[in-house]
Amino acid sequence: MTKRTLHRGLAVFWWLTLAFLYLPLAVVVLFSFNSANSSARFADFSLRWYHRLMGNEEILSAFGNSLVLAVVSSLVALVVGGVLGYGMYRHRRRRLGWLILVIYLPLVLPDIVFGIAEMAFFVQINEWTGWLSPGLGTMIIAHVTFQIPFVALIVYSRFVGLDPALFEAARDLYATPRQRLVHFMLPTLKPALMAAFFLSFTLSVDDFVISFFTAGPESATLPIYIWGAIRKGVSPEINAIAALMIAAVAIAAMLSLVFSRRRPH
Predict the structure, then answer these.
(1) Cβ–Cβ contacts within 10 Å for residue 37, how many?
(2) Alpha carbon 243 to chain centroid distance?
(3) Range with the lowest mean pLDDT among 91-95, 179-183, 184-188, 242-246?
(4) N or C terminus of the chain: which is more exposed, having fewer CB within 10 Å?
(5) Does residue 139 fall inside a structural domain?
(6) Does residue 44 sit within a domain?
């Protein structure tokens, strides 16, 4: 096999893989512009289903819940996960194998196990204290718990990539802890923090299982709404919702990639 043949074979494999991954998404987006009432055939291009979305209060409410849930949980996870990542870096020379296990555990647990555990915990707390009844608050807490490990690992990896002499230089210049935080650490960590936020946002918007187990009757998100509506059949309206979610997640993922690759000057 010549080198040229190998390159062509790899190129064909690459394009087939991309087609396998993205053709289903392309079909969903295409049929969201279908003018017909059914997804069985494509009649003509139309924006009628997007116009219907704008007038559907139930969908708008689910969209608002998804947005609030994603933004609030991502901000909380950014603060807690950032502090945890810094603590992991400061004490990296100690034997903290148990801490690494605790950080990685939410990443490898099946979502359904995590969701059931969160639901059982909130129900028990609610029975004891009357707090944490199912709703947007419990969903935010549940999302924060699986977002924190991602943020902590991203921040920790950024700290590991820094020259330790920079921290010594800041102390030698008599910078106070607040000055080191504001003028050195935050500007240095900005790309990592932005990437962690957008990754957390993407995970929250995309999540269904954990949201389903911790949601209340008035806190349905877009994934939950789609799951309830799709049992009646896939309609072009559902395709339109899915297309908007694909766009939102793709934008957040691209922003996360851009900020993760950016280096401070």
Answers:
(1) 12
(2) 17
(3) 91-95
(4) C
(5) yes
(6) no
